[in-house]
Predict the 3D structure of the following.
Amino acid sequence: MKIGLGIHSAWTAMRQRLSAANDRALKAGLYVALTPTIWMLLFLIGPLLLVLKIGFSKSTFAMPPFSAVFSIAADYIVNIRFNFGNYITILNDSYYISAFANSIYLGLSTSVLCLILGFPMAYGIHCTRRRWVKMSLIMMVALSFWTSFLVRVYSWMNLLSAHGLVNSTLLKLGFITHPIQLIGNYNMVCTGLVFCYLPFMIFPIYAVLEKVDRSYTESATDLGCTPTRVFWRITVPLSKSGAISGCIMVFTMSAGEFVIPELLGNADTITFGRVLWTEFFTNLDWPMACALSVVMMLFIILPVVWVNNKIPS
Amino acid sequence: MQSVAPIAKRNSEIWHDISSPPYVQVDMVTKSYNGATVLKDVSLSIYKGEFFSLLGRSGCGKTTLLRILAGFEKPTHGRILIDGLDVTNKPAHKRPVSMMFQSYALFPHMTVAQNIAFGLKQDGLEKAVIQDKVSEVLELVQLCGLEDRMPDQLSGGQKQRVALARSIAKRPKLLLLDEPLAALDKKLREQTQFELVNVQEKVGITFILVTHDQEESMTMSTRMAVLNDGKVCQVGVPHDIYEFPNSRFVAEFIGNVNLFDSVIVEQGPDYLVLESRDIDCPCHASHTGAIPVGAAVTLAIRPEKIMISTLKPAYPRNWTHGIIKEIAYLGDVSIYYVQLPSGKVVVSTLPNLLRLEDRNFKWDDEVYLFWRSENSIVLTS
């Protein structure tokens, strides 16, 4: 009832604002804003609420395979049964905790590696004088997006498998007598993640570097700064926002990644994504899967929100 | 007329010691980019303590010259000497030169104090010394108390002063200013002109200013160079450049001028006599060099040097007649556009000593224009 009232008053307030808005542009603006709002409600907020709800239910052998959280009894009394069991299990089971830790660790190390590799690359592209060289360098970074993500991961597998290009070359050259295991460890998962997400680090940093006025670096040089100091004292601090947004993107995507740890890892490279897959498709435990994804979202969103607040405007 | 700002009083003697060697020497500097020549054999001598300005339209090469002096660009040919030392191949961070950018280029991630201290830190000075120097220059530009502000919390005028403070904190031998007042509004610009001159006199650093605004350069500089198309047209003190331009370009670029195509008909001991088909009687010009009889020249007369009368002058030279076509009333002065019988329109600027309705010449009146021999400028190019 109260919720109904709230929606009603919000609706009347909006209608009043709309009628008060004689300005057609403002009216148009409100309607334009409505479209993404509806989209988000339907495809993001709605499903999220469903996930949240299922996370509080119990797994059952039924269709759908979870118990009802809200039910209406014969006397029109709404019964709410929250089940915190899934969350308690997650927080107590070292299997889940290590999966979380692995994911966060993978996300962080991928971000750091991408930053270490991506910053010099972005800076190099930025420093290029000739326009066509610059454009072709940008194209080379963007080119990896032209191939499907899965195909790229599979080609890594092909390159590094026991009979892959790397092993067979090493065998032929006589460096090794048996194929060495290149695939199926953390380092390989991390390499795959860095390979796939590096462009997401390069582009934001490059964009910020391009926006930094040349007069800042010239002015620092003019004040007696050597080129190395100019880089560390002016260029790096001024491109911080690009590096931060790159890190946020790479961290979010690599911490939540399922395909790469699954294909390039082994049974020990357990991550969030893989646990979720197992719970959902192998164990058919929807409530647990939902609870896991809620925890996962918190784990990823909270650091991002924290970092976002730290960015200077 | 346009110039509201009074002429800055300055100690113009500082640099007058011509016997002393020039402090900054630009020696036959040429700069080309991909085949396009931006500067052609530019040579300038600037003396210690001068407030020198480079004046020219955009694209004339003045900013390129400034960037060559700062060390951001290398000349294709030629040398730059500062205080007797050839710095042509020295990188920017090793030159005793500071530059104040048009955009001010204050580091957005540092406070005012950190910005000013930046250059001093590069010299490896002690913290206490740096702090003293920072507060000293902040006092000089009257910005005490703003040490901890970030650049985006400052007004345009304050940013300009911080930029100035930052560039003079290191006491460079030479300070380059790239259109330092272009980003300020008109009132503030006029006020800041004098502050810049005052600061320059207090610190005694040689300033080189780049501007496209002739009023700015005339108000502030001890000497100025007029640049056009990559070449130096004329170098001199502001009033010499205004009163004795050496070419049609300079005469037209600095202030307004009436130009008449004329021929030399007589060469006196210290004067020339010219005839023009636009002007009724022969014109006498003093203060000129010797030009042979029969040479085609341009007679230039500034609008404020031409007087108007309804009476025909009694003497047989330096006047002509015409009809007042337009009067532009600017309050303090009026600009009269007088059409001569040849069709040419001559501009005369007169102070409004009388109210408009009390004046004895109005639109469409036939009037006589006259001027003094020493105000005739004879231009050969």
Q: What stands out?
A: Residues 252 and 301 of chain A are 8 Å apart (CA to CA).
